[in-house]
Amino acid sequence: MNKLKxxxxxxxxxxALRAVMQQAAVQACFIPSADPHLSEYLxxxxxxxxxxxxxxxxxxxxxVTQDFAGxxxxxxxxxxxxxxxxxxxxxxxxxxxxxxLDPLPWVEAHLAxxxxxxxxxxxxxxxxxxxxxxxxxxxxxxxxxxxxxxxIWAERPILPHAPVYEHALEYAIESRTQKLQxxxxxxxxxxxxxxxISSLDDIAWLLNLRGGDVPYNPVFLAHFWLxxxxxxxxxxxxxxxxxxxxxxxxxxxxxxxxxxxxxxxxHLPDDIAILVDPQRVTVGTLxxxxxxxxxxxxxxxQSLKAIKGEQAIAHIRDAMEQDGAALCEFFAWFERTVRxxxxxxxxxxxxxxxxxxxxxxxxxxxFGTIAAFGPNGAMPHYQATEKSYAWIQGxxxxxxxxxxxxxxxxxxxxxxxxxGQISAAEKRDFTLVLKGMIQLSQAVxxxxxxxxxxxxxxxxxxxxxxxxxxxGTGHGVGYFLNVHEGPQSISWRGRPAKPVAMQxxxxxxxxxxxYRAGQWGIRIENLVVxxxxxxxxxxxxxxxxxxxxxPIDTRCIERSLLTQEEVQWLNTxxxxxxxxxxxxxxxxxxxxxxQQTQALL
Length: 601
Known about the structure:
By secondary structure, the protein is of the alpha+beta class. 34% of the residues lie in helices and 21% in strands. The protein has 19 helices and 30 strands.
């Protein structure tokens, strides 16, 4: 089979895939959005689903048979997927919509007994493998040893090779030896002899290392093995500078080549008990140690890094001040410039990134900026490109979702601002979303309550009007790490499957939204951290401290819809924003801040 180059159409690629499927006696090929580390943002080498389908969203999966090709993605991406898949011959499967089967039940309903489904085990989580294995009950077979897209993908990008660097102890707070000891203690409590980690954020946090292999997330490609006596980092040769290699060895961490992990796993003693997180390690990695006894549980580092100590929270507050100052400078520039000339969505991204880049401690954006004007705002994860973007002119709402990576924290904020004259309907929608955000911000709840249980607070103002949004209300946020991190979340849809209680020190987003296809989108997002609230005879309670510092545009508010308590919350928030950001600003940015934080009467 000749490999296909970038010039070949999507239909050519699907036909080529079908040809290699036929040669391999495979009736269906499933391609998830994943890599061997189950990352959210993928190195280009592992973006097979995007290359085959032409769909550019970060979440989705492709299923191809000889007479069908379908792209499954959730409601955040439906509008984008309709555009990306146009004329491709690939059907959009609106995941979560009424009557739409997920890929696994679709396969069970449409394939015949004896048919084979191929999924590259290198990008299939242990948890997903166990789910897909049920197709054997329908007389189907599962093949995980084939990378069929790789057989036709010419010019496939090589693996990234960015250097690894240290996250300074000033910001990391705890040394790597302290963190390794904490994980070993939890391993001992679980009675396991070894622990395999493939998730890049866990490895980076555990070893106080950072890298640049994955867009927006300061991580590097690696696997990690830990037992009572050894700590082995599997990373490509040359990525770790010599001085850092010496420092790691002094702390008891041995370095081996990235590709050596499979061979080392294959030589483990029979029946060794190994701790693995089934959602964060692939079956392709684990198959190298077929005799092991797998204890499936959350990586201890997931919970350890989710709970930020007071020193880390102090650094996050500092990062939020710098981030907020950059946003004020940007919005002052935008308000002036949009009156003088049209501004594009691309201009927003460039200018906002430049403002952040000038701030102390800034490293990179934490995700691709979403600058979406008017109808584009109705696509929650819309991304303007040089080939497709809108000019910001006339009347409408501009939604900007952006964030930065700083040495002392990760930021993520969404604001909506008016351009020209906005309608009463737009103001009403904005205010309903704001009411939900304020209600969640004000939450006080007993220890043990989960994000899933809190979600109703943010949605109730919308539900009362028969309105809803399809994404989660909140996700965990890393500490100079991934902008989306667990294990906590705020979503009634139940992800993760086993809800995690909110704990003191957890940093989570608060971002309800509302999207009207073809008209506008609204999302208001702050980051919050769980803090002690009060102790009574009924137990200990937590509250949320708002970390994000940036005005919420009162020009978009329908005042009559807010209660006096909600107005008081907003005025108090704006007073804090003004007090903490004013010393960092001057000129038009300071004037903009003072204007935007005036009390709402």
